[in-house]
Amino acid sequence: MSDSGDTDRDRTVDRVMELLQHESRKWHKIDQIRRSIPGDNPRLAEALEQLCREGSLWLSPSKGYALADRVGVLKGRVRVRRGGSAVLYSGEQTVEIEEHLLNGALDGDLVLAKKIRGKLRNRPRAKVVEVLKRAREGVSGVAIKKRGRWKLRPLEPSLPPELRLDIRGEKEPEKGSLVYASLDYDGECAVLQESIGDPRSPRALTTAVAEDNGLPSRFDDRIRKAAYDAALRSPSLEDRLDLRDEFVITIDPSDARDFDDAVSLVRTEEGYRLGVHIADVAYFVDRKGPIDLEARRRGTSVYLPDRVIPMLPFDLSADACSLRPGEDKPCRSVILAYDRDGNRQDFTLERSVIRSNRRLTYEEALAIMEGESSGDPELDSLLERCADLAGALRALRREEGMLDLGGDEFRAILDDKGNPVDFEKQTGDAAHSMIEHFMIEANRAVADHCGWMSLPVLYRTHGSPEPESLQLLRGKLSDLGVPLPSSKGIHPAQIQEVIDRTGEEPIAPLVRLAVLKSMKRAVYHPRNSGHYGLGLSSYLHFTSPIRRYPDLQVHQVLDAIDRGEALDSQQDLGTLASHCNRTEDRAEKAERDALEVLGIWYLERHGGRVYEGVIEGVADFGAFVSLLEVPAEGLLPSRKMDRGFTPGRGKVLDVTVLSANPLSRELALAQY
């Protein structure tokens, strides 16, 4: 098809949508549309077909065409619960879909759904009328044989409990082994692709989680060769601000493999000058080159308990781009000036070169901030200044409405075989908080710069919560014994006061989870609409270009401006934003799934211990208990509760493990 033909069709698509959006009449025949839009539109039928295929229009054989949302047809992704029912997310709308109304849709599929009468869980009901795009190409699970026929039991709880497994000439798997199979939707079966290993092995279970979430595998030879060649580039220092005499440090987790941000800080007569130095990944990754396209496809690095699935090949992520101590590295530096109270006075963006002086872990930085000497007076003095500025920034952000939810993430401690031997909480200590605030400041400044220049970048946006969500939050917090004031609205400061009040109490994770669930998701978007959770009118992601594609995209736009290159006006930022949101969701789900599987694997082998837990929810048949020492949630059946015990959200209790099955991700508990 010619480019001019595509242009004609796209122009007709725009004309049709403009017409129907301004017409009060709901239904339109094709002849009515043809007469109503100006000019000659030979591609009208094709344009209408495209709009129906995309889910923007709905076609009734008897009535004609209508805007889909005007006739109760929604486009969105389904999220299937363990029990089989699903939720459809369509823009700001959320509707319920019962299992028998999914029409073959699986978790994550993009679908068209039509609203039907009645409500479920206080939400509108709908039925799937068409699957537009499948979310998964394959599934991992356990291969079994029943009555001489192979079956697959998926590990993913949101999928059907059994699928027909087609071997198709492949070597038969061992019974009970973990395998990966592609999905043949037309044949309604799973087709064996490869054996993963022993389902009792945490490494095999983690591999199954990675496969099940569609995470990318190893880089192919072409991409690795391109990365090797790019890593050999020696950046010219002539057009860069030389900051190699600045005292610069990196602070990262102890097991970090790449370092894409570093900081420096000096006192000035007015207050402070903060330098946030970010690896200049765009120097090594050509826009639209093979490495860039592969990084865009991956969207983000994924951090599983025993491995990293990187966005960029090792030669770049852990070598050429990584800000390792004692090495000259090209950077994008954000230089920010503050007064003594932490108010930003000015900032500049610079192409720079730095030489990191020290690599610290968060634990080492925290110890120095709490008074221990590192033996290096210059380092001790730097961290003292950093703590002072971070404290001032934290106070200002709180005044402006920033929500600080703290951290409750678990980290698995693995032995040399990859088996979990313990878990530790990743708390939001002063060192983590300091770096977080410095990165927020850099991201905020770059967002302001890009906004002022109207640059085509992706912003990180976060809308304010809906009134209904806040009302539900009020009820949940009341159930937990930490009610919000009974005013019409809820100010972020009131929510933060509740979070602070619960502190380190056992119910604190439930309070934070309730607040998170009441909030809209932060997303990437081509238009800046502010960030409610941070209390900022302008925000984007800039500080992690090694591991997040939206950050790299911002770097590439800034690089194009510096080089005097024309920006690609045809770039579909909306499509890119949607893609990056999906890859972020995929990564978060995989990380959460892998940790949960390892937690249940651990409990299967340490069931004799007594664990402290907190009740997250209550049903007729029992209570759902979240363990405080292991990343797992289990069912406490009513029959296993102490006589006279009344379960309620937020109650803390001791439990033991009745049964734990990492394959089905099921955990049964008994009150101790």
Brief sketch in words of this structure:
The chain contains 16 helices and 30 strands.
Describe the overall structure:
- This protein has 672 residues and is α+β, with helices and mostly antiparallel strands.
- The protein has six domains: 65 residues, Winged helix-like DNA-binding domain superfamily/Winged helix DNA-binding domain (Arc Repressor Mutant, subunit A); 62 residues, Nucleic acid-binding proteins (OB fold (Dihydrolipoamide Acetyltransferase, E2P), Beta Barrel), CATH 2.40.50.140; 62 residues, Nucleic acid-binding proteins (OB fold (Dihydrolipoamide Acetyltransferase, E2P)), CATH 2.40.50.140; 316 residues, no CATH class; 52 residues; 66 residues, OB fold (Dihydrolipoamide Acetyltransferase, E2P) (Beta Barrel).
- The protein has 16 helices and 30 strands.
- The chain has a five-stranded antiparallel beta sheet, with no helix packed on it. A five-stranded mixed β-barrel has the order 8-9-10-12-11. It has a five-stranded mixed beta sheet with strand order 13-20-19-16-15, covered by helices on one side.
- The radius of gyration is 27 Å and the shape is globular.
